[in-house]
Amino acid sequence: MCARDVGDAVAKDPTIAGLIAQRLELLKDPVRNGDAIADVDDILYRRGLEVEAARKRRGKPSRPDGLFAFEDVKLDDGEVSDYRARRQSERLARQLHACILPEEETGEIIDEDAQLPQKPLISSSVVKSDPYFQELGVLRDALVVEGREVNAPAIQCVEEQMRRRMQQLRSDERKAAKAEARREQWILEQHPYLDGVAVAGLPLSKLGLSEDEEFMKLAEERKVLAASPEKNAEALAAREQSLKARAAQLAAAVVGQEAELREQMPYLTHLPFDVELRELHLESNPEFVALLAKHAALCEDPDRAGGAEAKRLERAMRDVAKRIAEDVVEARRRALVETENLHEKYPCLPEEPAPGVTLVEVGLVEDPVFRALSHELDGLRADPVKNAEQIAATERAVRARAMELGSAKLQATEEEQRKYPFLPRRVDDVLVSDLRLAEDDVFQELVARRDALVAAGPGSNPELLTATERQLRGRASELAAANKSVDAFRTDEDEAVRARNPFLESNEVKLIPLRLVAAEDDHFSKVFQRKRYCALALGDAFGISRADADLVLRFRSLAEGVFLEEKSLRADFGYFGDFDSSVGGFLCELNLRGDECVVNLLEKLNGLLGSGKSVDSSDVLDLRERIKLRVDELRASYDQAEREVTNELQLMRREFPMCIRDVNPALRSDDVLCMMERTRQEALAADDADLRAVELIEKEQLKRSVFFINDERCVFAALEAYSIADEEVKKACAAKCSRQHIKGLSFERDVAQYKHRLWRARQNRRRLHLKFFKHYRDGDEEVTVSDEATLFPTREASTLSAEDSYYLYLQQCKTRELLGASSPAFRCLTEMMKRRVLQLNTDVTQAQIAENRVESQLQKRYFYLHVPFGDLSHSRIPFEQDPDFMRLVAERQELLTTPKELLQRFPFLSKTINGISIAQLGLMGDPIFTKLAAQREELLGPLRTASCAVKLKEKQIRQRWAALVSNATNEESELRAQWPYLTHLPFDVELRELHLESNPEFVALLAKHAALCEDPDRAGGAEAKRLERAMRDVAKRIAEDVVEARRRALVETENLHEKYPCLPEEPAP
User: Fold this and answer.
1) Where are the coiled-coil regions (predicted)?
2) Are 295 and 257 within one domain?
């Protein structure tokens, strides 16, 4: 009885369910209850409309999973495009009609989704700024340019990845909106007297109620009075009125601050992100402050206030603000999504474990006790009926642990505030306890200076005291920015894994961050990924779902392994059971079992314990203390390495503000990109700046920067720095330098080592596997791969490495030197071998791409040959050097070319018209004549192509091609019959390509062999076989040179095309 256009929200509505039950009861006697049934039907119809209207008002419904929907895909079929546009406009009109339905007519909406905020994040803005989606988009465009038909499987694979990434991001937005709505509802539950209070249209979460001392004091007083509401009714009402007034004041202050900032900086009004200027904390950003000071100084001169330099500075400030806004929006979205994921997994968790402290700030994922409880809960949930009581008890323990961590965080924050009263509770949205101020030497030096001023008396030097406190707040802001940058780096790395594995719902598996799971180094994960890419290319839905299921199980298995390893490490190093922030969240990040010093100390400790020493003996306790000190040193080194990598990435984003967010240090080495940035800056500095031209440059910068995401040079640079630092330590030890000097060098070496590990892991996560999906072969599951080849499974690379002199030299060094597996030299050599194989593998891929592009060009140029794709270049027949073939091609083109002579072009015209030569009439300058001529050419074009002369010429070309192929085949067969001992050379090369008849060494050996074979008794003897082996060695060496030269030429061609896409395939025929 409901409306026809209904959704599942109608089925969930309890009012409708009750009406349906009532109607079924009335239908037992339809004659007597006819009028009542009609009334119920009418109510059902109206109620269905109300519920459906409310659902539409909450936002645009998500598209079904099966639809391939891109916002930026241009449809080829105009009629289909028009039809879809009309359908979309009709749907939008229906949504607008639903939106203007009065609120009071909708009735009570029970569906919990009805509480979503009215303005959720716009999906298109999130999708368009997503680095992985941008990378896939550029890759898809490049494949389309190379040839849609040739690259159809790869394009299908990429587009499916884009669609699933889009679904991931939209799912995240729904989670973020849900988390926002739940937080608003929670605040209203905490402060019900604020329901309906006008706060300038701001959400209550934006007012910072829990951080306002006056508001919290009033709330505490109200809580005491509310214990006896009847007795304290009047005082309770007065307190609630005061709380409402204070909330209104806070809202007015927020609105006033925002209005003041927008008035002060009107050029920042329209940032491309939904964020307030006050949330950016621009006054704490040194780069922005410097630009603002220059702009203010410039604007003091009225003649220069609106000039080109002022506009350039405004544009630069806008770029800085845009970058900061993007970071703020992304951090906020990820925090909301993480909060929602935690609530979905653990509904028992509180919204705030402590007043003013959110779930994501207490470090649940990093806490070993919480992880242990979570794993226990996962095991119990396997049988929820049987383990109901245990599940309830464990959930209470989970909640209690979260509250305990929240209380500890709040207590640490309050303690820091007492120590540094000049700092607020949050510094640029970061809790002051998270800044680790006690470990910062610069901050502590300023604190000592301030303490001295305070000790001298409050009136001794107030100006210097104020300046010092300003410096302290500035330093705290710098530390807060560094803290946020490191957090963003970690979440970026987690998201990079999740983006490339769209079957993962969150950035952790079993509370292990995805960046630590290291699935990109796991052989079985690679096998499943290759299967998945193959299924994506074929559009095999069942194959995709099966590969996804296998990968999910593998991720869980790897995460379980990390969990057990972390548990083992904490037990071995004495950190089990407590969350020590000085040790950080995860010991497995530090690679403790690979540190030579730690391994030696552990061996000594195990030796003492094995000899019967007590765990409380002084020797054992001393060794444990030394191990802890070394772990602390490694943690400090790791933190420093993480900060340096983060700073380098932030610096790259400042140098190239228009490039992709997922920057790579290789951008600096690209001359074209640097030239684009200089051109952009010059264009902005011009008096008549062409903003459209600037936008075109920025788009090209973004597109070009995508190609550097997978660049590995940063890994090689980090490896080189680590090798140099390790050598410096060895030299200092050999020279018997002071212990302090060696300790400093060791710290630098450890930092370099961790930087290399971070860069290597980062680039491994971003390695583009789509180029290798076609290499998948059935039976790869059973292939066993050695440690040095786990990342590089292609056969071509392994063949090259077996012949590569540098790889063989590294292998010899590793075999010759008796190195321990945990020694830096051993790890360095192993890593250098892996990097070399990766280089060779990349060269193989680039050579394949270059060869495919040549094949595609030849296929387009000589389509009338009807030769299968790949046969043109793989046959390696130089048909374009054959004069007869090229003569026939030129004759065919001449038949298709429009004659230049007027009478030849238009033979139906007379030579003279009314005694005037047609050459004197200027027909080709007449617009009407030329238009008719063009229409005639359009009609004649297909006729010329289909003419008998052209068909005959194409037949002759095909015959000549067949003759060339036959000649080449016969030549190769004759050579192989003549020299059967050269049949199986270890390279993919034809004998005719070696030109052995031109090699003096081979010719001399061949002459000796021929003379020897004239004697039947010696033809198959030892000397003949020796000569055959010698000729085979010569041919093998020449073949290796030919293959290597061809591969290098192809790699160099591909490098040129990547750097300069505008280059032609052949500069001349």
Assistant:
1) 624-651
2) no
> Residue 610 contacts by C-beta under 8 Å, 6 or more apart in sequence?
none
Between 204-208, 546-550, 776-780, 1001-1005, the lowest mean confidence (pLDDT) is in 776-780
Classified as helix, coil or strand, 949 is helix
984: alpha, beta or left? (left if phi > 0; alpha if psi -120 to 50): beta
Contact predicate 646/489, CB 8 Å: yes
Whether 437 contacts 479, CB under 8 Å: yes
> In sequence order, which ranges of 616-656 are alpha helices (DSSP H)?
618-655
- The three-class DSSP label of residue 733 is helix
Q: Are residues 269 and 341 in the same domain?
A: yes
CA 597, 599, 603: angle at the middle one, nearest 5? 120
Residue where the block lists tokens 């952790």: 508
Q: Do residue 210 and residue 231 come from a single domain?
A: yes
Residue type, 500: R
- Burial of residue 230 (number of CB atoms within 10 Å: 0-12, 13-18, 19+): exposed
**Which range of residues forms the domain containing residue 377?**
350-419
- Cα 556 to Cα 564: distance, rounded to the nearest angstrom: 12
Please give the Cα distance from 441 to 766 (Å, whole number): 36
Residues 202 and 235 occupy one common structural domain: yes
Q: Is the full-model pTM beyond 0.85?
A: no
Residue type, 599: V
Count CA within 13 A, CB hemisphere, residue 499. 23
Q: How far apart are CA 1069 and CA 881, in angstroms?
A: 10
Task: Name the least confident of 403-417, 479-493, 684-698, 941-955.
Answer: 941-955
The C-alpha atoms of residue 139 and residue 1058 are separated, in whole angstroms, by 12
SS3 of residue 513 by DSSP: strand
Last residue of some domain: 203, 226, 261?
261
Instruction: Tell me whether residue 308 is in a domain.
Output: yes
668 in any annotated domain: no
In terms of domains, do 273 and 341 share one?
Answer: yes
| CA separation for the pair 209, 219 (Å, rounded) | 10
Question: 198 and 255 in one domain?
Answer: yes
Residue 218 lies in a domain: yes
Of 689 and 190, which is predicted with more confidence? 190
CA distance 520 to 497: 9
CA distances, 611 to each of 605, 614, 620, 974 (Å): 10, 9, 11, 77
Q: Of 169, 185, 201, which residue constitutes the final position of a domain?
A: 185
Residue 99, phi then psi, degrees to nearest 5: -70, -25
Q: What angle do CA 113, 114, 115 make, to 5 degrees?
A: 85
277 and 340 within one domain: yes
What DSSP line would sit under 742-801, residue for residue?
HHHHHHHHHHHHHHHHHHHHHHHHT---GGGGGG--TTGGG----GGGTT---HHHHHHH
Number of domains in the chain: 5
Q: Are residues 196 and 250 in the same domain?
A: yes
**Which amino acid, one-letter code, is at 1019?**
A
Whether 237 is covered by a domain: the verdict is yes
With b for 16 or more beta-carbon neighbours within 10 A and e for fewer, the 792-811 pattern comes to bbbebbbbbbeebeebeebb
287: Cβ contacts below 8 Å, ≥ 6 apart: 320, 654
Is the distance from CB of 528 to CB of 547 less than 8 angstroms? yes
Spell out the alpha helix ranges (H) of 346-387. Answer: 368-380
pLDDT digits (tens, 9 = 90+) for 680-711: 888 877 777 777 888 888 888 888 888 888 88
Asked whether 582 and 639 are in contact (CB, 8 A), the reply is no
**CA–CA–CA angle 435, 441, 447 (5° rounding):** 80
DSSP state, 265? -
Q: Over range 619-627, report the average pLDDT.
A: 87
Q: Any idea what the Cα angle at residue 864 is, between residues 863 and 866, rounded to 5°?
A: 80
Closest CA to 171 of 232, 239, 121: 121
Residues 773, 537: Cα–Cα separation, whole Å: 8
